[in-house]
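Q: what does this look like with NAP bound?
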Amino acid sequence: MHAWLCENPIGVDALQWKELPTPEPGAGQVRLRIEAASLNFPDLLIVQNKYQMKPPLPFVPGSEYAGVVEAVGDGVKHLKPGQRVACLSGTGGFGTHTLAPAALCMPLPDGFPAVDAAAFIMIYATSYHALMDRAQLKAGETVLVLGAAGGVGTAAIQIAKAAGARVIAAASSDDKCALCASLGADATINYTQHGPLGGLRDEIKRLTGGKGPDVVYDPVGGDFAEPAFRSIAWRGRYLVVGFASGPIPSLPLNLALLKGASIVGVFWGDFAKREPQANAAMMQALAGMYAKGQVKPVIDQTLPMADLRKAYAIMGSRSVKGKLVLVN
Ligand SMILES: NC(=O)c1ccc[n+]([C@@H]2O[C@H](COP(=O)([O-])OP(=O)(O)OC[C@H]3O[C@@H](n4cnc5c(N)ncnc54)[C@H](OP(=O)(O)O)[C@@H]3O)[C@@H](O)[C@H]2O)c1
């Protein structure tokens, strides 16, 4: 097997494509032949030693992937060789093969292509948990999605539309806004043209008839958080999803008081660990939505697995719409 090995977590340039011994699965593990692996934000942080989880060295990055079970370890009952699965295990995906924890493998129904499956769990689980569980989104409500053309943002648009909500998608270019409209967003805001000092608030106000969005989905943080929160409707829910722009914003708490609004934290990874049954039910619901065509990952492009460094560079350029996927 071959894999991208991180022996020294000082950045992407230190990763090396190496031949490694093909491992045998231990108890509770399966060996997968990887068909596709997607890039997620933590994949960049983890090779720079900036992610909260610090795997022992050396490790193979690649948090999310899909492939075919080749061998199963002791105690694995629900998977067998030949079965196709998707897995989000934190590491191991950027290679030709990996050992995956069987408990984290989601069997794939027929007709679920590997490229979609490798780009599915993280973004849809996060956005469904955020909108449907944490925010209790209802049909007819309005959702403002920031960073709407990114991975979790595109998933949020699709899930909110499937729930019968009105979606205002905000992104940094006309190109990205056009993608959001093609996914069903009812209105878009290019926030590069409407800066944080008033412009964004005015535009949100205009698009919501002065009422403001019932739910704000924020995976970006930074300068737009406060104007977005200031615009929120009475009883609004502000979903703290991530800080892709870097700075972690602070919000004046009097705004929560004045709007009867909630600031709601979203941490899908811990939800999955702490509430595994609720998470499993959610994943089943999402697989059903995929089968009905209500959700489908937006794939910006696929690249050969050997082009990981190029994929990281594209990801760093902030130009990706949806997801980047590496294939074997
Ligand atoms: N809480 C959770 O459970 C959870 C789960 C998954 C992910 N996350 C977090 O959610 C965030 C987004 O994840 P993602 O997978 O959607 O990432 P992504 O595909 O890279 O999208 C992030 C979006 O953020 C915007 N952005 C603004 N400033 C940026 C900058 N300086 N660099 C890069 N992007 C910037 C970009 O949109 P514009 O160019 O349109 O502004 C981009 O499309 C990350 O912080 C991730 O860690 C949280």
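The chain is about 30% helix and 25% strand. The chain has a mean pLDDT of 96.
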